[in-house]
Design brief:
By secondary structure, the protein is mostly helical. It has one domain. The protein contains 13 helices and no strands. It has helices at about 5-20, 20-30, 35-55, 65-105, 105-120, 125-140, 145-150, 155-185, 185-205, 220-245, 250-260, 260-275, 280-300. Helix 4 packs across helix 9 (about 185-205) and helix 5 runs antiparallel to helix 6 (about 125-140). The longest helix has about 40 residues, at about 65-105. It is globular. The protein starts with a helix and ends with a helix.
Length: about 300
């Protein structure tokens, strides 16, 4: 039994669980009137500020070669910016359930691209588990009513496109982390990606007339800043540290499968905090996700 692989899988599970709090925190910000284009920018910016303070005491964090600047700061920053802008539009267009279902097409994409780009193993079991958790997520977040989950609303097409773009950017980030973390370490890789994301979001949003520095786009009030800080500490910095610790130890495909506990955690939090109900098919979906993740964990532990 490879303890490093087990640890990597547990780190990925922890990342997914931490990401699962995003929905609750984002919902609080949405209800507080936070501008949709400002949430991603400000939560990532607060995370970068924290890393900058850390870097004052660990200056080696700022040392990087040209390849790191181009691929991690540039490429990774671009992927972060695309995700942070696209995913909120997916949520508003097709709802939280639809956005989550589209996002978790990612394990299948990561499994295939992991083989093509990184030369990782593409076994029948990995593909089966990626498809299994994808179906499980769809059932969990929709309660089995997949048709209504991806229908209706004037922004439906924008939401679908946003969800697919967010899924592709998330897949790319997973593959890039698998390459960058062993070379630059978790902290430096995370700092370069997030800092690059902030720079690119500021440029892109300004070009499209949605400047994130305007009063309406900034968190307004102590509660909004508190939720923004919580997102920065948890889903932005904390979850990515765990995720990067996972991809350092295991392949991209099982890391993506493990992270699918995110919608499970989000659903359970909604049940506990908002008294939402889950249908029988929803519970079946939850069991499929948990079963797929558990089977993947056992298979990685045996390698």
């Amino acid at each position: 039994m490879n303890k490093s692989r087990i640890a990597g899988y547990l780190f990925a599970l922890g990342a997914g669980a931490t990401w699962g709090t995003t929905g609750v925190l984002s919902t609080a910000l949405f209800h507080g009137g936070q501008d949709i284009t400002g949430i991603g920018f400000w939560r990532v910016s607060v995370g970068v500020l924290g890393l900058l303070i850390y870097g004052l005491f660990h200056p080696e964090m700022f040392k990087v070669d040209l390849k790191g600047l181009l691929l991690v700061f540039g490429g990774g920053g671009f992927l972060v910016a695309v995700f942070e802008v696209a995913y909120p539009y997916a949520i508003t267009g097709v709802g939280v359930a639809g956005a989550a279902a589209l996002l978790y097409l990612a394990p299948v994409v990561v499994a295939v691209l992991g083989r093509l780009v990184l030369g990782e193993a593409l076994t029948p079991l990995r593909m089966f588990l990626a498809c299994l958790v994808m179906v499980g997520v769809a059932l969990t977040v929709s309660g089995g009513d997949v048709g209504s989950m991806l229908s209706g609303g004037p922004g439906f097409k924008v939401g679908v496109v946003g969800g697919l773009v967010a899924m592709l950017s998330y897949s790319g980030t997973t593959l890039l982390a698998r390459w960058s973390v062993p070379r630059y370490g978790s902290i430096r890789s995370l700092f370069l990606e997030l800092f690059g994301g902030v720079v690119m979001m500021a440029i892109f949003l300004t070009l499209f007339g949605r400047t994130p520095f305007t009063y309406t786009a900034r968190p307004e009030g102590l509660a909004a800043w508190a939720f923004c800080l919580a997102q920065a500490i948890g889903p932005v910095v904390g979850a990515n540290f765990l995720f990067f610790a996972g991809v350092r130890r295991i392949d991209a495909a099982p890391t993506a499968v493990a992270a699918t506990v995110e919608p499970v955690v989000g659903t359970l939090l909604a049940l506990l905090l908002f008294s939402q109900h889950l249908t029988a098919l929803g519970w079946l979906g939850l069991l499929l996700v948990v079963g797929g993740v558990a089977t993947s964990y056992r298979s990685e532990a045996k390698d």
